[in-house]
C-alpha cells in the first residue's frame, strides 16, 4: 500500500461480511493520506524491497537479551515492564541499560552514550552521515538505529528504508528498532484501532522487507497491550511465532458449517498452544490448499461432517460436526503437540 501498488482493496475476515467494510474504509483513508507523500527515490545500495532477505547486522546484548544477527526480533516497551516484552526502555534510563534518545545533532548521541550501555538512537536518514564517525568509534554493540518520523516528503516506511540504505552505504551494521508512535501516524488524534492499522502497515511492511530487529509500539497507555500487539504484528509478518496461529477462510456459499462460531470455539480451546498453526476451512474445494502450511486442519467435508488433517494429509473423514473439535484436540495430543493450559 505504501509503495503505491494496487487499485482494489480486498478484506477477508472470518466474521460477518459487513465487518470487513470498516477495515477496507480505514485502508482507503490511509491511502488518500499516502498519496500526498512520496516513496523513497531510487536506491542503488543493493537492497531489494520486493524479495525477502533479512538485513544482516551485528549483535547487541540488552539486559541479557541478544538482539540482531540471527536472533528472532525482540519486543520492547516504553516506560514500564511487561512479561510479554524482552526489555523496556525510557528516555531517563530508569529501566536498565537501554536508553532511547532523539538525536538531532551528533552531540546528542555522544551524551546518550555516556549514560547507557546501549542507546536506541532516533536519527533522520538524511543526517546519518553526520553521526557515522561517532557510531564507528563507540563500543561495538552500543548503538541501535531507530528510523525517525518522515522527512523530505517521504512516508514512514520510506524513511525507514532510506535509513537502512544509507547505513549500508556507510558500512554501519547496527541493529534497527522499529518504533511506531504518534510521530509516524498519518491521522492526528486517531483512536487505538486506527493506530493499530497504521502500526501494522509500518512494522509489517518493514519486517517483511527483512528490516527490523526490535519492535515497539506506543499506541496504548498499557505496556502489556503494546507488547501483545507488537507480538501479533510480528506473527502476522511471519517474523516471529509467539502464540497459536489460525488460517481461516471467510464464510461463503460452499461453507458447510457455522465457521465463525466454530473458529471461536477452536480458538478458546487451543489459543494457549504456542507455535502451532491450525487451519479452519469451510469446504474441501479450496480449504486443503489454503491451509497447506498448517500443522492441523479442520475442514468441512460434507453437510454436518468434518475432515481432519495433519499437515497436508487427511487423517480422519466424515466426523459428526458436534464431535469434531474433541477429535481435533485428541489428534493434537496424539501428535505430542498438546500442553495443558495454565490455570491462571
**Number of H- or I-type helical stretches:** 9
In the sheet with the most strands, the strands line up as 10-11-12-13-14
Shape: elongated
Class from secondary-structure proportions: alpha/beta
State the helicity in percent bands: 25-40%
Element pattern in H and E: HEEEEEHEHEHEHEHEHEHEEEH
Radius of gyration: 22 Å
Provide the β-strand percentage band: 15-25%
Largest sheet entry: 5 strands, mixed
Q: What's the total count of β strands?
A: 14
Uncertain segments of ≥5 residues (pLDDT<50)?
A: none
CATH topology of the largest domain: TIM Barrel
Mean pLDDT across every amino acid position: 87
End-to-end Cα distance: 40 Å
Topology:
Layout lengths: L19 H15 L24 E4 L2 E4 L5 E5 L8 E3 L8 E5 L3 H8 L4 E6 L4 H10 L5 E5 L8 H14 L7 E4 L11 H18 L4 E4 L5 H14 L8 E4 L10 H12 L6 E5 L5 H4 L5 E7 L2 E6 L2 E8 H14 L10
Parallel strand pairs: 3-4, 3-9, 5-6, 6-7, 8-9, 10-11, 11-12
Antiparallel strand pairs: 1-2, 12-13, 13-14
Helix pairs in contact: 4-5, 5-6
Walk me through the structure.
With about 350 residues, the chain is α/β, with parallel strands linked by helices. The chain folds into 3 domains: about 10-40, no CATH class; about 60-235, TIM Barrel; about 245-335, 2-Layer Sandwich (Sulfite Reductase Hemoprotein, domain 1), CATH 3.30.413. The chain contains 9 helices and 14 strands. The protein has helices spanning about 20-35, 105-115, 130-135, 155-170, 190-210, 225-235, 260-270, 285-290, 320-335; strands at about 60, 65-70, 75-80, 85-90, 100, 120-125, 145, 175-180, 215, 245-250, 275-280, 295-300, 305-310, 315-320. Helix 4 (about 155-170) packs parallel to helix 5 and helix 5 (about 190-210) packs across helix 6. The two termini are about 40 Å apart. The mean pLDDT is about 85.
